[in-house]
Amino acid sequence: MKFTGFSEGKLNAVRIPEQFFRELLLEMDDPGELRLVLYVFWRIERMEGNFRYVQWSSLLADRTLVKSYASRAALEQALEKAVARGVLLRASLPVPSAQETLVFINNARGQAALQAIQRGDWRLTGDERQPLAVYTERPNIFQLYESNIGALTPMIAEALQDAEKTYPAEWIEDAVRISVENNKRNWRYIEAILKRWQEGGRDGKKEKSEPSAERESDSHRRDTPEARRRYAEWEQKRRD
Description:
Blueprint: H1 18-24, H2 31-45, E1 54-55, H3 56-60, H4 63-67, H5 72-85, E2 88-95, E3 98-105, H6 108-119, E4 122-124, E5 132-134, H7 141-148, H8 154-166, H9 169-181, H10 187-200, H11 218-221, H12 225-239
Antiparallel strand pairs: 1-3, 2-3, 4-5
């Protein structure tokens, strides 16, 4: 069948990073691998939420996709190649009487989801419409940033990952909250708050070690008007 051309009017678009065309497209000599990667981009682009994945079982259930390969083994080989190349990420989770394989795009979101699975933060929901989801005691740092500050970029994602290793999770959450309250929605402002607390402690006094729930009072764990006032004075002096 010959393609008759794209339709007139507004068409839904699939966003594919330019890096794909510059670094990956011409390296893919297997049409099956390329077809699967583009298909996964299309499926994930149609989803909503911070954690997006395609279940392998849903790919196998797509008759049109499976029919485009000589066999199921050829489709599995295409996935193996895409994962080995680093274009896609793959993880397995136990489901009743089986293992479910999840496929992610290898970007900041996909990497964060894979780390969440490795930490054991993904659980069965019991909801057939979304059988798998992330459950954590605290919001994932990427989700926290996107929900309160703005769009995630590779540079910001790297900075967030470094911050997650450097500062307690509750510090990051409180610093984000302060930035929102002060209408300073940018990472530099949040990072300045975190560095200030690291250098002087949450109460303005240098802590000998990292704060912990056992030795911090409630006023230390939660930011107070007095602490915000002290930070605003410090920030003003820093700018002057």
